[in-house]
Amino acid sequence: MRPIEIKPDVFWVGCVDYDHRDFHGYSTSPEGTTYNAYLIKDSKNVLVDTVSPGCAKTLLCRLAKTLDPEKVDYIICNHMELDHAGSLQEIVERTKPEKIFVSQTGLKSLQGYYPNNNWPVVAVKSGESISLGKHTVVFQETRMLHWPDSMVSYIPDLKLLISNDIFGQNIASTCRFVDEYNKQDDYVHRIKEYFYNIVLPYSSMVLKALPIVEKLDIDMVAPDHGLIHRGTKDVKFIIDMYRTLAEQKPQKRGLVFYDTMWHSTEHMAYAVASGLEDNDVPTRVMSVKANHHSAIMTELADCWAVACGSPTHNNTILPLMSAQLTYMKGLKPLNRVGGAFGSYGWSGEAPKCLQEMLKEMKMELPAEPVKCAWRPTKDTLKACHELGKTLALALKAKCAQN
Asked: Is position 402 within any domain?
């Protein structure tokens, strides 16, 4: 459990959790995740962020390989969510720091999670700094990226930004740096997965924060999950990618997701996809039974035509489709065109219900929903194909405007 020196005097002392799959109870981490924590050794030694509950011993073991834990003078908590502060009680008891730094809003979070502790807590504002000796740490609040208490820590002379949750990914690996990781496509996918399931609702905040980050002289961004971005090329890549994801400019790609009972709605889904593809919009088809809601949300990062289908069940839609759309609505995707379809037996409310949910997400709806009784006929499948075509043409027009 050796620490890794990522900059002179700065060491990674975090924990890799290869078995973690349920991320925060709503998303997935198919390959595990990493809880990154960092030690800065100086006249005043500072631990920046901690780790998830149950991982404190791993952090302390790594820390002890380069510094006696009782010689930690300060702890910085950039964010109080428990995957970064859940081990704080154990760490504080062992290190007995002189000061614990949190954001102004973080003070409320800390008191909520750890009440009745007489800890030496200092709440800081954007622009405030602390001297460690050779090095200085400058604090910048990044509220709602992705909690109200979030902030980042900047060490100017080292050109290092410790960014907490933003710029992270759920990757569990022996590699600490992006340039060591030989699965570039996976790395990009994990960024999209993380952004679209966690950061997306705060895209406007991202676009406000990025100019502040770009003014900093940095050649390393060290997040609290996943790989560290080092060198101007990798730093520029992650900043540019965040801008692209936050801007949500339309691309010519479609997503059809559906639930089905006896395959009727499934056949309709593939006919809609065919209509999109035949009009030059590559499309992914995903069953909500076969794919976790966060995986479908991740796919949306590249898709701006969205069609969803469900059979009618108890005068509404099937439960998994309801869950998918509720989850999607909360993440606030923008600039999509949408359509709905579905089969039914004796009533037929599902397509209308789906269309209404897409409307609530402010999607452009260029066509009426398609529905059919029992099994889809040739005419029904033709209507589904036409729905796909209509979505493709509407998406192309939207892309042309941007």
From this structure: no
> For 46-97, what is each residue's pLDDT tens digit?
999 999 888 999 999 999 999 999 999 999 999 998 888 889 999 999 999 9
> Domain span at residue 148?
4-246
pLDDT digits (tens, 9 = 90+) for 264-274: 999 999 999 99
Domain containing residue 331: CATH number: 3.40.50.360
Nearest 5°: phi and psi at 386? -65, -35
Q: How many domains does the chain have?
A: 2
The answer to whether 32 and 92 have CB atoms below 8 angstroms apart is no
CATH, residue 228: 3.60.15.10
If asked whether residues 259 and 240 sit together in one domain, one would say no
CB-based contacts of 36, cutoff 8 Å, min separation 6: 12, 14, 49, 222, 223, 224, 225, 226, 228
Rg (CA), the chain: 24
Does residue 9 carry a catalytic annotation? Answer: no
Q: Which of the residues 38, 181, 194, 344 is marked catalytic?
A: 194
Is the Cβ–Cβ distance between 281 and 385 less than 8 Å?
no
Question: Active-site residue 229, yes or no?
Answer: no
Please tell me which residue in 20, 84, 146, 229 is annotated as part of the active site. Answer: 146
What is the full DSSP assignment across 18-49? Answer: TT--EETTTEE-BTBEEE--EEE-SSS-EEE-
